[in-house]
Amino acid sequence: MGYQENKIWKRLEEICVNSSELGNIIEMCDSAIELVKTIRDTFPDYTLHDETHICNVINWMEQILGDSGIEMLSAGECSMLILAACYHDVGMCYTKEQREKELKSHRFTEYLEKNPKEYLMVKRSKETGEEIPQGIQIEYFRKIHPQRVDELLPENWEINTVRRDKLAAICKSHGEKIESCKDELLYDGFLETDHVLCAILLRLADVLDFDMSRAPHILYEFQKISTTGNPSAETEWKKHQASNGFKLMQENRTLVYRAVCEDMQDEYTIMNFLDYVDEELENCSLKLKQYGHAKWKLINIPMKAERYIERRGYQTGEYRLTLEADNVLDLLMGDDLYSADVTFIRELLQNALDAVRARRAVDYRWNWEEENQIIVSGWSDKEENQWFRIDDSGIGMDEPAIMNYFLRVGRSYYQSDEFKKLKYDNKKIMILRP
Predict the structure, then answer these.
(1) How far apart are CA 194 and CA 202, in angstroms?
(2) Cα(92)–Cα(101) distance, integer angstroms
């Protein structure tokens, strides 16, 4: 079924007074459908993002709205929903030249700065004259695709019921939190378009299109997905192939999900995805009431999906490893591990030494031979408790380091990709320093 056979399109035909406007929208939609056919050039291992997905997204928009909601749509809202369904994934379309240009862009540099592991891998590749690892390229291209829609929309805009910048903002919003872009999605009284509604319908419809239609078995075999060496891609395909999808029961607005799993790993990944869907449903319901136009606040968005998983060839249950808190604390803090009180002081002194050594490794301007110091002080309080304090001139800790490493047993900042990146950057500065 094509997009022109959906209820939202039929509603648009009823209320749109300008026939040339319909023609312009058709031209835009058809262009997007042709464009998304090229997604597989860059993402050959991905499940389908084609016309079927576009139509499924529109269908889910209709199910969430219900017949009464569709009757409330303005011409601007109908046009925006159809175009958003068609264009939300076009940012995944690249020519070879566009991929090469993107990998040299400031945007890619900013991405690497925020992802130390990828940063180090790319730097090592450049130093050895090798290509940027394919996995890093693909993941980067995927993450920025909502932002790229604005770059791919035609500049010569001929649709009167939809603003180009708002369509770009709605497509961008499906990869971000609604709160971060709500100011771009304000209600347009002139066009009678609730952009928050459109953004919420797009993001929900996109995640609810989760069934085997996006992962046909014949294509899985033809593409030899299981032999590509990309385990995440194979997991995604198997997850879709096991899925019979969601169904929204209109009479009581209950959302039901069904799947048939022959592998417990497939069920595990599906259940994790359903947890994410439940979070999206609850959050979108809340945000529509909070930011949406008054006429849409009565839409009943299900808060979670009822799950029905048929298991074939295996059995699951609530089995988990548990630890006795008292015994664990005794193990970690008792005499068996720390036979003397001074052991704790030794550990804190070691931390101070590590901090000083780390600063020496990354701060080339620091005169460590003269300025490094570790000060130990002690005192007694009124209750005659003995206290001691250790101060050092080391690298210090910011809040992320405290939260992600210092307060997490078993994690070391000095072994992390963040610290390795810091060392790499400062080593490079030292080499360039006159």
Answers:
(1) 13
(2) 15
SS3 377: strand
What is the DSSP-derived secondary structure letter of residue 306?
Answer: E
Residue ranges in 153-211 assigned as alpha helix (H): 164-173, 178-181, 195-208
Asked if 411 and 405 count as a contact pair (C-beta separation under 8 A), the reply is yes
- What is the spatial distance between Cα 298 and Cα 316, in angstroms, rounded to a whole number? 39
Residue 55: both structure tokens together: 């139509």
User: Where are the alpha helices (H) located in 75-144, listed in sequence order?
Assistant: 75-87, 96-102, 106-114, 116-127, 134-143
pLDDT at residue 326 tops 80:
no
Going by the DSSP 8-state scheme, the letter that residue 48 receives in this structure is: P
Contact 82, 8 (CB under 8 A): yes
Q: Which helix (H) or strand (E) holds 33?
A: helix 19-36
Cα 249 to its chain centre, rounded Å, is 29
Least confident segment among 73-82, 150-159, 278-287, 377-386: 377-386
Measured between alpha carbons, how far is 116 from 51 in angstroms, rounded to an integer?
37
Reply yes or no on whether the pLDDT at 18 is more than 80.
yes
Query: If residue 378 lies in a helix (H) or strand (E), which one and from where to where?
Result: strand 374-380
CA distances from 142 to 135, 147, 231 (A): 11, 10, 17
Side chain identity at residue 149, one-letter code = V
d(CA 26, CA 193): 19
Backbone angles phi, psi at 315, to 5 degrees: -135, 140
Contact 115, 232 (CB under 8 A): no
Residue 308 Cα distances to 271, 305, 317, angstroms: 11, 10, 15
Dihedral angle computed from the Cα positions of residues 166, 172, 177 and 180, in that order, rounded to the nearest 10 degrees:
-50
**Residue 201: which of 91, 69, 81 has the closest Cα?**
81
Query: For residue 287, what are its two tokens?
Result: 């945000």
pLDDT at 93: 96
